[in-house]
Design a protein that fits this description.
Structural class: alpha/beta
CATH superfamily of the largest domain: Glycogen Phosphorylase B
Bound molecules: ligand 26W
CATH topology of the largest domain: Rossmann fold
Helix content: 40-55%
Oligomer: single chain
Shape: globular
Number of helices: 34
Distance between the termini: 56 Å
Length: 848
């Protein structure tokens, strides 16, 4: 059942040619009432908040649909180059407020509702987060959708419509429990259009027969057909009437082949079969770093790629005559290796369906595809067993085999006799298909997501590939949409900025730099501080209501929110808090700046150590929050079920941003940018985009500590690190490490044994002990600076003022110009000036 179809009531909507932003408050109010009545068959007074939300969202969707139609008909005439962003994850969060802002009707809507006694915020809170992603990679894809539409590029997302998104996290007794994320409670999603007429079939299993009479043909037989049905989510650009599409595929059973019930077959087995097929898109795998060789995951990856490419090619062939135009008219981007099967799938379509020869097909494939790498962690690199691939995707495996043979031959010609090099670059080696190697070989562009990350790829992780094809490698530092993360999430700050420098910063975020001179204006800094206080009060209210903990809004709100992972070092943060607590216990009158330590994040369900880290944080929180002797000087909170909506609440309310990964391990980070943009000061290592943040904000406006990436990589390469030496030489550190297992916490003494052993027995892989002293020192510096309101507020301001470069509009313009060679004008220099680039990315700066 799809409740949101047939709800279009044009008679109640403003005139066809009226732009949404011209709708008056009265017209909006009337359209809303009409939508309520048409949709629910009862008067406004009898509807629940949920029903009101549904009607409001449907009304907004109607407005967007007009622009969708005009955008599509315009494009059908002009044929601009289209980019398709293939991603196994899109972490959208909520869309109502974003859509209202992008249509330019947020205020109109709020006023219209208030005339009816309804608060817009209450309805916004009714929307479920679309949690179709794990973390950084998925949220990045969602930010890019927003930027593509804002810039006006013909850019679309292709993903999966998971029935259940990332699990809902419940904390019970300090432990994480996972519940299914039933985000499609109403069975359909208010923003989507189901398009059954655009379904395609994806084939699994079976066998391939090679027919060689005349032209060689590959006949795929006895396969299982799964139907991919697209659900299109419109993506509205910011006040530009452009609407792009996020196409999410859902697996359905092929009814034409399995209507056995009707013919008197066993109904139960048919129903079972249906469930089996449809389970393909049931769940999002909850791992954000650890590759799991599950057949279902490989099936999901191929399903995404095959459905997307078939539909892309269908639309290409409708509009273009010659296949040779393919790379000039479409670009297909592979977001990490999860969609890397795009390489053999496009080859299959071009060879088997379009009749091209190998060389022509390969040339077109490579020129059409590009690939972004998002991680250097070895455990995240995907390698699928040959047997599994061959069994599940026999024709695709044949093609991969052929790609591998040709690629290795080419390498042999270039590096004759260098077997080790060739083995390290082969697409198939040790009975496994190396997806990153496949993606590199089959793309014309490979990029990292922050300068240091790209340097590590070039010099270390992918050095052999870089030596072979240096021209393929490039860097595009990540970005975030300032429309969601500043304009929408922090309206008071956005208003202050607009009052101060005018409204153009929304279109040209680098204009935020015009705020810098206000660093000398104490009146302005007071206002900035008041806005932060307002946001802190809002968060404090939420914490009191949900956790019954009272936090001091004058304390430093110090936030560490992201996936829980050993390399992100939540435990280092815990160790600093333990040390601070020990100091307070030794001297309850110690004059420290009060702090509220805020944690949030999910652990992969199978990641034992990360789950224990959650228990550790909660155990520490219990101990500290209930210890009257420290007079509420510090509080620790673990906020349950961290998601996009929680981030929108926490980030504008934070003073300090914890970005403390082991240098070299975090590819970029994007939370760091969101905090910066909201005037939180970073305490961090020189890792990922923290380096660009330091360059942009200035070294005086960030607290840097710890080993450099080069030092870390040298330890990994050459050894020479001894955790015990550090443990034995720092008594304060020793106390903290001992407290993990010596009964300091009122839990089983083995509860945190894993953490203890990771630090000492396993020689502290992520260098927590090594970085402890410099981290504590940086925390002290931060607290001292916070005591001086104006120096602190100036730091906050400099972060805001130089955050414009981190807008995903800048990032996306770089992709569009340098990688996809889009033919539409992309005013890149108007979005960020050359001097901004020079400041953030000084030429010839080597970070490792
Ligand atoms: C196969 C399991 C798996 C699943 C997801 C492996 C790896 C991933 C992602 C690539 C992990 C991820 O989200 N990486 C993050 O990407 C962000 C966007 O570029 C970066 O900002 C983060 O630093 C990076 O960890």
């Amino acid at each position: 059942m799809h409740t949101n179809s047939n709800l279009y009531c044009p008679e109640n909507l403003p005139a066809q040619n009226m732009k949404p932003e011209n709708i008056t408050v009265t017209e909006f109010k009337e359209a809303f009432i009409a939508k309520i009545e048409a949709m629910h068959g009862k008067p406004l007074s009898q509807t629940s908040d949920r029903e009101k939300f549904q009607a409001l969202a449907a009304l907004v969707r109607d407005l967007i649909s007009k622009n969708l139609i005009t955008t599509n008909s315009q494009r059908a005439k002009e044929h601009p180059k289209q980019v398709y962003y293939l991603s196994i994850e899109f972490l959208l969060g909520r869309l109502l407020e974003t859509n209202l802002v992008n249509l330019g009707i947020r205020d109109t809507c709020a006023k219209a509702l208030s005339l009816l006694g309804i608060e817009l915020g209450t309805l916004i809170d009714q929307e479920e987060d679309a949690g179709l992603g794990n973390g950084g990679l998925g949220r990045l894809a969602a930010c890019y959708l927003d930027s593509m539409a804002a810039i006006g590029l013909a850019g679309h997302g292709c993903g999966l419509r998971y029935r259940y998104g990332l699990f809902e996290q419940r904390i019970i007794g300090g432990y994480q429990h996972e519940l299914p994320d039933n985000w499609l409670k109403d069975r359909s999603y208010v923003w989507e259009y189901r398009r059954p007429d655009e379904k395609v079939a994806v084939r699994f299993g079976g066998a391939v027969r090679v027919q060689t009479n005349g032209k060689t043909r590959f006949i795929h037989e006895n396969y299982e057909r799964v139907i991919a049905v697209p659900y299109d989510v419109p993506v509205a650009g910011y006040k530009n009437e452009i609407v792009n599409t996020l196409r999410l595929w859902s697996a359905e059973v092929d009814v034409s082949h399995h209507n056995c019930c009707i013919h008197g077959n066993d109904c139960n087995s048919v129903i079972g079969y249906k469930h089996g097929v449809e389970s393909l898109t049931d769940i999002l795998y909850p791992n954000d770093t650890h590759y799991e060789g599950k057949v279902l995951r490989l099936k999901q990856q191929y399903f995404l790629v095959s459905a997307s490419l078939q539909s892309i090619m269908k639309s290409f062939r409708l509009h273009h005559h010659s296949l040779s135009e393919l790379p000039d008219t479409i670009a297909v981007h592979i977001n990490d290796t999860h969609p890397a099967l795009a390489v053999p799938e496009l080859m299959r379509i071009l060879i088997d369906d379009c009749g091209l020869g190998w060389d022509d097909a390969w040339d077109l494939t490579v020129r059409t595809l590009s690939y972004t790498n998002h991680t250097v962690l070895p455990e995240a690199l995907e390698k699928w067993p040959v047997g599994m691939m061959e069994h599940l995707l026999p024709r695709i495996y044949m093609i991969i085999n052929e790609i591998n043979e040709r690629y290795c031959r080419q390498l042999w010609d270039k590096f004759p006799g260098d077997w080790d090099r060739i083995r390290s670059m082969a697409i198939i080696a040790d009975n496994q298909v190396h997806m990153a190697h496949l993606a590199i070989a089959g793309s014309h562009s490979v990029n990292g997501v922050a300068e240091i990350h790209t340097q590590i790829l070039k010099k270390s992780v992918m050095n052999n590939f870089y030596t072979h094809t240096p021209g393929k490698f490039t860097n595009v530092t990540n970005g975030i949409t300032h429309r969601r993360w500043l304009l929408t999430a922090n309206p008071m700050l956005a208003d202050l900025i607009t009052e101060t420098i005018g409204p153009d910063w929304v279109e040209y975020p680098c204009n935020l730099a015009q705020l810098a001179p206000y660093a000398k204006d104490t009146g302005f800094l007071d206002t900035l501080a008041n806005i932060k206080m307002h946001n802190k009060l809002k968060l404090a209210k939420y914490i009191k209501a949900k956790y019954n903990v009272v936090v001091d809004v004058k304390s430093i709100f110090d936030s560490h929110i992201k996936r829980i992972h050993a390399y992100k070092r939540q435990t280092l943060n815990v160790m600093h808090i333990m040390d601070l607590y020990n100091r307070l216990r030794e001297n309850p009158n110690l004059d420290i700046v009060p702090r509220t330590f805020i944690f949030g994040g999910k652990a992969a369900p199978g990641y034992y150590r990360a789950k224990k880290t959650i228990k550790l944080i909660n155990t520490l929180a219990d101990k500290i929050n209930n210890d009257k002797s420290i007079k509420d000087k510090i509080k620790v909170l673990f906020l349950e079920n961290y998601n996009v909506s929680h981030a929108e609440l926490i980030i504008p309310a934070s003073d300090a941003s914890e970005q403390i990964s082991t240098a070299s391990r975090e590819a970029s980070g994007t939370g760091n940018m969101k905090f910066m943009m909201n005037g939180a000061v970073t305490i961090g290592t020189l890792d990922g985009a923290n380096i660009e943040i330091r360059n942009a904000a200035g070294a005086d406006n960030i607290f840097v500590f710890g080993l450099s990436a080069e030092e870390v990589l040298n330890y990994y390469r050459y050894g020479g690190y001894n955790a015990w030496d550090i443990y034995n030489s720092d008594p304060r550190l020793k106390t903290v490490v001992d407290q993990l297992v010596n009964g300091f916490f009122p839990v089983d003494p083995d509860e945190f044994r894993t953490h203890h052993e990771a630090l000492l027995r396993h020689n502290d892989e992520y260098f927590l002990l090594k970085d402890f002293a410099s981290y504590v020192a940086a925390q002290c510096r931060l607290a001292e600076v916070y005591r001086d309101k104006y120096i602190w507020q100036k730091m906050c301001l400099m972060n805001i003022a130089h955050s414009g470069w981190f807008s995903s509009d800048r990032t996306f313009s770089e992709y569009a110009v340098d990688i996809w060679e889009m033919d539409q004008p992309v005013p890149i220099w108007r979005r960020c000036q050359p001097e901004d680039y020079e400041r953030v990315m000084p030429e010839h700066d080597a970070y490792i």
